[in-house]
Amino acid sequence: MPMLTYSFVDIGSESLYQHLYKCIKNDVLTGVLSPGTKLPSKRSFAKNLGISTITVEGAYQQLLAEGYIYSLPKKGYYVSDISGLTSVSASAGKPQFHLNRDHWVYPADFMSNQIDPDNFPFSVWTKLMREVMADGKEALMKISPCGGVLQLREAIAGHLRQFRNMNVSADQIIVGAGTEYLYGLIIQLLGFDKVYAVEDPGYQKAAKIYRSNGVACRYVSMDGEGLCIDALEDAGADVAHVSPAHHYPTGIVTPIGRRYALLGWAAEKDSRYIIEDDYDSEFRLAGNPIPTMQSIDVTEKVIYINTFTKSLAPTIRVSYMVLPSHLAQRFYEKLSFYACTVSTFDQYTLARFIQDGHFEKHINRMRNYYRNLRDALLSEIRRSPMAELVTIREEDAGLHFLMEVDTLTSDQELLKLAEEKGVRLSCLSQYEQNREGKTREHVLVLNYSGIKQDHIGKAVKLLSDCVLSCERRARI
Amino acid sequence: MPMLTYSFVDIGSESLYQHLYKCIKNDVLTGVLSPGTKLPSKRSFAKNLGISTITVEGAYQQLLAEGYIYSLPKKGYYVSDISGLTSVSASAGKPQFHLNRDHWVYPADFMSNQIDPDNFPFSVWTKLMREVMADGKEALMKISPCGGVLQLREAIAGHLRQFRNMNVSADQIIVGAGTEYLYGLIIQLLGFDKVYAVEDPGYQKAAKIYRSNGVACRYVSMDGEGLCIDALEDAGADVAHVSPAHHYPTGIVTPIGRRYALLGWAAEKDSRYIIEDDYDSEFRLAGNPIPTMQSIDVTEKVIYINTFTKSLAPTIRVSYMVLPSHLAQRFYEKLSFYACTVSTFDQYTLARFIQDGHFEKHINRMRNYYRNLRDALLSEIRRSPMAELVTIREEDAGLHFLMEVDTLTSDQELLKLAEEKGVRLSCLSQYEQNREGKTREHVLVLNYSGIKQDHIGKAVKLLSDCVLSCERRARI
Asked: Which residues of chain B have pLDDT under 50?
């Protein structure tokens, strides 16, 4: 048995126990204490070092727990065999990953979905959250069903009944932290063996999510009314992901006939479903909101999905889906081991926000705000030097519109020019997968929800400069 | 052209425009207006009905948007052909799914991870959230990187440096709404073609999540030190999901030798990784926390994952993982289209909570609370009639311990008895997949974090009744 002696001078803020633990561990790691070596008994070691038995006991227990030593009943403590393992030892020089922090802020950003802090109802939200935290301590700590807290699901069901004419039970509603997360749940619910169809052109993220989840995803072409039924058949699709209320980016509103045709397609096979993405229906600026496919579906084929990203804020991560009854049943049978991904604090606050009528008021306020924003933007465009070179389309349905530019410049060049001038935008052609026709060149997609009122002049000036320099380039 | 006449008497709260829209829509749906029928011009229709042209215009636009009518340039409006589609018409009698709301509350619940509302730092949390909402409006509305807001990631990195001796960059940290969600991201990052290994016995949810995500998941047997390397090899596993700090439910702490052996296993092939689930390491009740595998890994093979579920509250959905640098890089290349699933409100509040030292204080307070709770529970057990029939094990590592019962009664019967007496608990054998040995019968897994101090007496009484009636039954 070696005579172990360690110094307890200058150990700084370390406890005696920590210091002793580190000394022995170091000796084990460096081989000073070889495997099988018996350590001194706690009492004699403590006496030798002039410390208490409890301190030695503490160090031994920690070394034992971590496996540096082992104990034999009624015999004592021995050094473990960790030979050959120390070569893979910790190093301070471990590589570290660092994100690039240089975020270029575009003077004119027609792609952002960030909202102006002035447009978030901070005072009401703060008040409701305080109320929730004062009144609802028990409820806040209670684990909610995987679909979300009942109060929020009931508030959403009420909202859907009143504003979307949808008659659904609160228990068919599944709340989740963003539609992206909900897509993942849908895949787990419907199956990894299904073929998912997305619109071409379309919202690119949907396809990315399906592919990232390892399921077959096919682009299906659209005509002027929405997804083509023939193309859907040809693609061998099981699940069609559509946005009939307002297609992104074309702005197409799927008419009732095509809606029924899609429902008819789904009704033909058990495996078929429709995911109805109703992402910005609250902001239809002309006429009433279009009735949802969910509300005219009696065949239990439509999964309705919506989010508070556009209607409240993208940084509060709350979305929801409405499952047909048999899928809601299956969800609770198969997937109820998942915890709901939204904090109860946010769920109860949002529930009150909806139930007390604040949500309706907020949407009405924001619809007016966006209408004024759009009108100001359009009139600025009409007054700008580019006016006679551009045509505005699909300006009524939601938070973006299309601007067709009369130019020969390719979209690629146009985007490069825009980038140079500090204009962030996208072209319709970028959302197309099947580019054979190339019928959609020279059409800009302008999301205006992120443009501030007092930046409109500057944003349109930059956009106009860009369009004019395009045109000139083409004519040289 | 038919002479359309609608009554505008008794239309209640409907607007004239809505009423006209509904009347025409109804006539289209019921076939009163047949496909191809030309509708009256706006002006003559308005004059006929005694309403304004703008009202008719509104109704026509809505019907047009929804596809019930179509327009021909310079000719007018015509009824669409929706024949054969109306058979699939909306019905009020749509089936609705309803969850069973009868939740039986167990007088003694040894499986809950709910926390007592008294243990959540409501006053500090409310204060911080108010500060965040008052000071940080711009920041709260700004969309965070997919890994989470920098301030929270830096706070977590600081915490890991100080308390887990882990030296990681904030950019290697990915924040998400629960570990379950993060597992899904890991699968997308490492690949659906990989074989995932989970511990047998083990935390059942991990296997459920892998299977639900459609990836191969194999149970790998454990010995007294953790996952067996040979079994891991035999399983053909690529990714090993382990909880070396405190295995659930056995309580095993993986010693340093096995940790290095696991790292050695992972280092052998490029495709191999280790997911280190450190879920309740903050609550080790004796000695220091065990060093993480992440901190001794120089081969970039360990994905460290932890949660605020145990350390703060399960209803605030915040978890995080630390990716090795090359995986962090890959994450931002492949998966940065995902939005972070945690609300910025919660992220900034938690960041302040950690940075201002509240988290450390809270953990220390809770560790004492749980130590006292455990001690009270153990002493109650020792005083109870069942004392001589039971042996307590693994009571130091986290928020549960094992209680071996000296009985011949099968676990199945034991669980039935417990259910009858209102005791919710699980047996070690329930966590085993490979039941050949059946070496783990008669061992109860007692999670005590959900037991209230003043319910201990009652809970132990019920548990003791259960154990005693077990024994008697076996001897009859």
From this structure: 86-92, 476
- Tell me the C-alpha to C-alpha distance, in Å, between residue A446 and each of A251, A258, A426, B126: 11, 27, 7, 40
| Residue B310: φ, ψ to 5° | -80, -35
State which amino acid sits at residue B78: Y
Q: How does DSSP assign B121-167, residue by residue?
A: -HHHHHHHHHHHHHH-HHHHHSPPPTT--HHHHHHHHHHHHHHH---
Between helix B344-355 and helix B358-383 the angle, nearest 10°, is: 80
Look-up of token digits 């007592």 = B116
d(CA A354, CA A1): 74
What are the distances in angstroms from CA B209 to CA A174, B15, B82, B236, B374? Answer: 18, 51, 45, 19, 31
Mean pLDDT per 10-residue section of chain A, whose length is 476 residues: 73 82 84 86 88 88 82 87 54 69 78 86 94 91 92 95 89 96 97 96 92 96 93 97 92 90 94 94 74 90 94 92 96 94 96 95 91 93 93 82 90 90 90 71 90 91 90 54
Q: Give the SS3 label for residue A198.
A: strand
Per-residue tokens: A72: 């034999």
Phi, psi at A384, each rounded to 5°:
-80, 160
* Yes or no, beta carbons of A323 and B65 under 8 Å apart: no
B99 and A332 Cβ atoms separated by less than 8 Å = yes
A306, HSE (Cβ side, Cα atoms, 13 Å): 25
Calpha distance B428→B435 (Å, rounded):
11
pLDDT the model gives residue B132: 94
Residues with Cβ within 8 Å of B316's Cβ and at least 6 positions away in sequence, in order, are A343, A344, A345, B308, B346, B350
What is the C-alpha to C-alpha distance for residues B32 and A427, in angstroms, rounded to an integer? 44
Contact state of A177 with B341 under an 8 Å Cβ cutoff: yes
From the centroid of its chain, how far is CA B341? 11
Beta carbons of B374 and B285 less than 8 angstroms apart = yes
Burial B28-67 (b: 16+ CB within 10 A, else e): bbeeebeeebebbebeebbeebebeeebbebbbbbbbbbb
Whether residue B81 contacts residue A225, with contact meaning beta carbons closer than 8 Å, is answered with: no
Question: From the CA of B299, how many Å to the nearest CA of chain A?
Answer: 8
pTM beyond 0.95, yes or no: no
In this prediction, residue A473 carries a pLDDT of: 53
Contacts of B126 in chain A (CB under 8 A): 130, 133-134
Question: Which of A19, A88, A263, A332 would you mutate first to test chain B, the one with the most B CBs within 10 A?
Answer: A88
Q: Which residues of chain B have a CB within 8 Å of the CB of A290?
A: 65-66
CA nearest to B92 within chain A = A167
Shortest Cα–Cα distance, A177 to chain B (Å): 5
Instruction: Give A-chain residues touching B184 at CB under 8 angstroms.
Output: 184
> Which of B68, B89, B291 is the closest to A66 by Cβ?
B291
Cα of first residue to Cα of last residue in chain A, in angstroms, is: 93
What sign does the CA torsion over B24, B30, B32, B36 have? Answer: positive
